[in-house]
Amino acid sequence: MSDSGEPLLKKRKVEKQSTPLKECCKEITEGTLFGLGNPLLDISTSVTKDFLDKYDLEVDNAILAEDKHKPIYNEIVQKFDVHYTPGGATQNSLRIAQWILGKPNMATFFGCVGKDEFGKTLLNKAKASGLNVNYDENDTEATGTCAVLITDNHRSLCANLAAANYYTNKHLDKNWDQVQKANFFYSAGYHLTVNPEAMLKIAQYSNGEKKTYCFNLSAPFISHVFKEPLMKLLPYVDYLFGNETEAREFSKQQNYGTEHLKEIIKKISEEKKISKKTRVVIITQGSEPTLIYKDGEVKEYPVIPIREDDIVDTNGAGDAFVGGFLSQLVQRKDIEQCVKCANYTANYCIRQFGTSINDMADFK
Asked: Residue 250 belongs to a domain with what CATH number?
């Protein structure tokens, strides 16, 4: 038992190297998938509901740390048994995609870290999974961290972006050649809090070159607090991901007048689009079927059932879902195959601690 009174999370295995070269990856080039996001070191532990209440946190929610939340990180390290894993939504998804693809450097990730030990840890772990990492390093800010607080298989995320909050256009411009290598782009909505200008530049480039831009609503507060940059970016989004809570908050902020998910995803798909591509909208619902709107039709895709006893940590399941989906999308697979792999990676993830890769991928 931990000091919180909750059972300790199951011990995770040591993260292994990425899988060997697969036949499917011989036809796609290195760097075909590109991501810009907030690299964080996840600090995870089990806590009680009282602990969440102490810091005014909610289950199944994600927020940016305010001053009142800053003591959390030291407190959980000092009082509880914690686990450190590479984090940050976009980086998580790319690591999972890379794991499925198998061949090193198929995916490239940009973000900002501090010049410290946590930054070195993130770099080493990301590279160990085969991801091509190019961090912008900040001289004065520490590497960002995220408290992952788990109660009864639910999680509350509280992120202190720190250095991740300082990603520069200078770094993007200096390394633009790596952007040009990609055919598919992905960012979680969290980076709208950091550098929406960089995201928009990449999205506009993707559109101009007839490539594919993917985006994730990520958290309810993105649709509310960062509504303006979100709506500037949305016209360039070809694939939009989110969960049911995020979709309903988006609907509220856009005055759709409905909480019915099938109506919401249709309206999101029909929002202003710059390119001639039809926007595909993917909304997950936990254990309920995933809803996908494509070409004027909503389809439901059941998830893989899992016993309650087999669930270790739901943190990162959404990131893993996206990573699996992207791993097939970059291979030009159909939606059914993309969802099949997304379900596989999400199911795998919730059996691990954090977005951990502890085995060889056996998805077929």
From this structure: 3.40.1190.20
Q: Has residue 61 been placed in a domain?
A: no
Domain that holds residue 213: 23-40+88-142+161-349
User: Given 116, 295, 319, 359, which residue is catalytic?
Assistant: 319
Contact 216, 187 (CB under 8 A): yes
Angle of CA points 10, 13, 19, to nearest 5°: 135
> Is residue 33 in a domain?
yes
Number of domains in the chain: 1
3-state SS of 76-142? HHHHCCCEEEEECHHHHHHHHHHHHHCCCCCEEEEEEEECCHHHHHHHHHHHHCCCEEEEEEECCCC
Tens digits of pLDDT across the chain (364 residues):
333 333 333 333 334 444 444 555 557 899 999 999 999 988 889 999 999 999 999 988 889 899 999 899 989 989 999 888 888 999 999 999 999 999 999 999 999 999 998 899 889 888 888 999 999 999 999 999 999 898 887 889 899 999 999 999 999 999 999 999 999 999 999 999 999 999 999 999 999 999 999 999 999 999 999 999 999 999 999 999 999 999 999 999 999 999 999 999 999 999 999 988 899 999 999 889 999 999 999 999 998 877 777 666 566 789 999 999 999 999 999 999 999 999 999 888 777 765 666 666 777 7
**Is position 319 annotated as part of the catalytic site?**
yes
In a domain, 260, yes or no: yes
